[in-house]
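Batch manifest, entry 17 of 40.
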Amino acid sequence: MSLVRVILGSKSDLAHGENIKSFLDRFGIDYDFHISSAHRKPDATAKLAKNAEQEGVEVIIAVAGMAAHLPGVVASHTTLPVIGVPLSGSALAGIDALYAVVQMPTGVPVACVAVDGSKNAVILAAQILGIKHPEIKRALTAYKQSLAKV
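Output type: structure tokens
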């Protein structure tokens, strides 16, 4: 059963998706992975968000650049925590995506990490999941302790 659902807005975001996958694996977190544009596949994107909880998902990571509507669209269709990852790559170097993710209206919150902050999105998801899942908390604690050794 997947605890995290990862949704990328475009195939061009796959490098960030691979980062997310490898970090989720590091923490032993089961996940599923989708590419679904909020603009090109709105019905499929809404379905991924609406069905997530009944499918056992507890956190959603939504990755998008430029207009970056994906995290907000996903959040509008679920009560699960949604973590938005704004991406660089546009003429505005990701500032457009950052603003799109953080400027959500009241009632539709999206947690936002830094531009291109895929690893921090996974760490935040692990922190959320660690409240309920002791094995994830142990892996996260070990990771955080390893940071002090650098």
